[in-house]
Each structure stands twice: as structure tokens, then as C-alpha cells.
User: What shape does this take?
Amino acid sequence: MGHVEWVEFITVESVPTAGEIVHGSGGLQVPGGGGAVAAVQLQKLAGDVTFFTALGDDDLGRRAGQELRAMGVEVRAVARPESQRRAVTLVDADGERTITVIGERLAPSGDDDIGWSDLAGFDAVYVTAGDPSALQAARRAGTMVATSRILKELQEAKIRLDALVGSAHDRAERYLPRDLVPEPHVVVRTEGSQGGTWQIPGAAPRRFGPGPQPPQKGDTYGCGDSFAAALTFCLGRRDSLRTALAFASECGAAVSGAIGPYAGQLSL
Assistant: This one.
């Protein structure tokens, strides 16, 4: 459950500084964003995924839905009158991605008629966007994982997550103990190629290692989203947390072996 951005990738030697002109090459345009990337990764792992989302009521929004369906995702989308949110991703020589987002994030709402009651029969759900009533509907699933980027909405929803996932390096995903009440069963903070930490309430953080680095270098776009999707998949099938983190790290690292979020994703 979450958001979609129409993403254009441009390869540059380095990200330009203020006033600088650089030359880039590109051509890859795909539906991206944390919700879309996670949905495709879950489809490759589970073989069956439903994506609750909102799309712009324009050509790009319709194209995003069509391309996600072509990748095997069942898309349940409400059309919003706003333009589809877009993003431009600069990929430098080191494979790091720098993203400029254009437009407001379009998120599903609990008021949307897209079959929320079906979630009671789902093994797991991963959430990147949604209003509090949508989050409450998502809690019907057997396992619920969410990104710490939507902390405000989670606070209003007052639900207990099985896992909260966020980047330790991204200020927008910062989480401190007791930011959510009730607290998540586990909080996972990723640190890119260094692995990351996991923490249960009242205990000190513990480290987990990175996944194996792929032989080819692509970019880091979608690594964290694929990590979170794989973690959700493993927790949904009742793997141990240690097993889930190891597999999620492998899935996250694999994405960096290709340009864009999908070519490097692992399939089960």
C-alpha cells in the first residue's frame, strides 16, 4: 500500500553544484516510488501481490498503472484529479542516486472504494503512504510493516506495527523510542552497504550485516524499498527475524547491480 512516482533516470559524472551545467544520458523511465518498487519486489517473491494506491488522472498516471500491471502487480488504484507525481533521478559515477520529486504525493484513503475489507485475508502488508483510516484498514493483515517516513500518519492511526523500517541516514525517516504509541514490535534502521540495526522496545540496538554486493555496479535507487518488501515477505511467512533481515539485505543489495529499481531485483 503506498505511492507511485513516474521516474526518469539520468546518468551524470557528478551531481551539479549551484550554477553548474553538466551533460547527462538517460532514457529509462518507469513507475517508481517506494510503494511501486516494493509491490514489484513482493510480486517477484510471493508470486501474487495487490497494490492499493492512488494515481493521477492523466496520461502518466494511467501509464504507470498499465506498466505495473504488465509486471504482474494487481493494481487497485483510485484516480485523483491531480497530475501524476513525477521524479528525476540523477545517478552519478559512484551509483548514488539524487532525486528531485515534482508534485504532491498521492496516497490512498480509507474512504476510497478499493476493497479494504479484503486485507483481513492477506498474509502481510507493507505501507509507504496512506491516511490514518487506510492504515487502520491495513492493520487487518496478518503482518504489517511500514516506513518511518509516514510517522505522522502512523501516530494518528494508533496501531501497533510488526516492524517499522527506515534509513538511518535520512532525516525524514528518523524514529526515536516512543515516537509511536504503541511501539512497533521491532524497529529496523538501514545503513546501505554497512547493513543496519534492529531494536525491540526497551533493548539496545543490534546490528545486522549487509547483503553480498553484486558483481556489476548500477545505482542505489530502490535498494531500501526492496529491502523493506523482502522483510515484509519473510515476516509474513513467519521466518525468524534473523533470517528475514539476512534475506532482506540480500534483496536490497541486489538492486544496486543494475540501473533502475527492477532489473536487479531477486526472484524467489
Summary: The chain has a mean pLDDT of 96. Helices lie at 33-46, 59-70, 132-138, 151-157, 223-236, 241-255.
